[in-house]
Amino acid sequence: MKIAMIGTGYVGLVSGVCFSDFGHEVVCVDKDSRKIEMLERGEVPIYEPGLETLLAKNVDAGRLSFTGDIAVAIDGADAVFIAVGTPTRRGDGHADLTYVMAAAEEIAKAADHYIVVVTKSTVPVGTNAKVRDTMAAANPDLEFDVASNPEFLREGAAIDDFMKPDRVVVGVESERAGRVMEEIYRPLYLRDFPIVVTDLESAEMIKYAANAFLATKITFINEIAALCEKVGADVKQVSKGMGLDGRIGKTFLHAGPGYGGSCFPKDTKALARIGQDHAMPMQITEAVIKINDEVKRRMVDKLLDLSDGSFNNRKIAVLGVTFKPNTDDMRDAPSLTIIPAMVGGGAKVSVVDPQGRREGEALLPGVTWESDPYVAAKDADLLVILTEWNEFRALDLKQIANGMNTPRLGDLRNIYSAEDAREAGFEAYSAIGRPGYP
Ligand code: NAD
């Protein structure tokens, strides 16, 4: 198959590279010329483990190339994937479809043969029908089909998720498009990964329903964690006891500083908005959005408590700013709420993150960037763990506490315990939903 991939972000680039690794001929397009120039030099514009090696392998094999020109990419292509951003539209919470529709129109104008236009971006129900109408209006003579193929990969484990998915969802409305999609995903069919074939609307809905459910699971355990703190229970034990129940499952039950990232915040808001538009309010999702905002604010109060009620002139070291480990993505990260609150309160904040600096520098003004947790924590009044990168999981806490002015630890990912902190010489420790001191 010959495939064009529009958008070389976290989803488009990973999908393009993996499809080429399946053996397809893939041309990736982006309108950001900086990204295309980097990719042509063999550099990867984002941080995603394993991506650079797999990209180089497929470029060398002659199956993968990059261009800024959609017409070049779709020349002779069997399918073109739209993998552009669908951020929250300013003001109303809807998914902003400007980039998707612009791509659809560009495809229609450039195409001169039958092609399947596949929406990989996360889009509200009805968008594929709109893509179809937009394309038909832009090029009435073009023969094409639309297909919905939402993506479920996780940043940080994207290649594995793409190559070994729990399932692939494909929404189609013609047999011809179904056959093209089957051919594209043939390597996964052959290895018996479940492929769920649906109508367009159901495929679109599956993606929002899945993300809203996962956001709900995280928010549920965060709320339970808040209650654990009041009643003296330990949320780590509670989630273990809950998660071993096969009906519940143990993933997405780790209490933390609130969900963030490029998907859950915007997708929950979009689903809530779709519900409102259809007079069918998504009450659970609306509550989840509200509670998640409160969780982030509660984190600020927790750190304020550890700072005796004021951030003013406190030296605070923060470990981790990306929304989760193994990515450089800072979109809607809890750090973007918590760190500005500390800086705004007069704290001198130093920050360490293995990959977050490039994005984070512009987003977190007024902080000092360090590369070594021990240097960042030197003479600090408070150490805060915000993202559970592996590098922060086995710190020499004794050495850190010894170097601090007032050794206090805010462990917002529960990677240490009160005993660890006490043994290391910390005078105060606060975690999420489990005992701390003093
Ligand atoms: P991104 O912002 O990282 O990348 C989007 C890319 O599209 C950018 O490089 C942009 O320059 C390019 N682009 C926009 N319009 C274009 C056009 N007309 N022609 C060529 N290029 C164009 O976005 P992302 O994180 O990869 O997300 C893409 C979609 O996938 C979103 O709808 C998102 O919700 C969904 N999704 C994301 C993830 C994730 O983990 N990031 C997971 C599943 C689904």
From TrEMBL:
Keywords: NAD, Oxidoreductase. Residues 317-418 form the UDP-glucose/GDP-mannose dehydrogenase C-terminal domain. It is an enzyme of class 1 (oxidoreductase). Pathway: Nucleotide-sugar biosynthesis; UDP-alpha-D-glucuronate biosynthesis; UDP-alpha-D-glucuronate from UDP-alpha-D-glucose: step 1/1. SMART domains: UDPG_MGDP_dh_C. It catalyses: UDP-alpha-D-glucose + 2 NAD(+) + H2O = UDP-alpha-D-glucuronate + 2 NADH + 3 H(+). One of its GO terms (biological process) is UDP-glucuronate biosynthetic process. Its EC number is 1.1.1.22. Gene3D superfamilies: Cytochrome c1, transmembrane anchor, C-terminal, NAD(P)-binding Rossmann-like Domain. It comes from the Bacteria. The active site is at C263. GO terms for molecular function: NAD binding; UDP-glucose 6-dehydrogenase activity. Pfam families: UDPG_MGDP_dh (PF00984), UDPG_MGDP_dh_C (PF03720), UDPG_MGDP_dh_N (PF03721). SUPFAM superfamilies: 6-phosphogluconate dehydrogenase C-terminal domain-like (SSF48179), NAD(P)-binding Rossmann-fold domains (SSF51735), UDP-glucose/GDP-mannose dehydrogenase C-terminal domain (SSF52413). NAD(+) binds at D30, K35, T86, T122, E155, K266, R331. InterPro entries: 6-PGluconate_DH-like_C_sf (IPR008927), NAD(P)-bd_dom_sf (IPR036291), UDP-Glc/GDP-Man (IPR017476), UDP-Glc/GDP-Man_DH_C (IPR014027), UDP-Glc/GDP-Man_DH_C_sf (IPR036220), UDP-Glc/GDP-Man_DH_dimer (IPR014026), UDP-Glc/GDP-Man_DH_N (IPR001732), UDPglc_DH_bac (IPR028357). The keyword NAD applies. Belongs to the UDP-glucose/GDP-mannose dehydrogenase family. This is UDP-glucose 6-dehydrogenase. It comes from Roseivivax halotolerans.
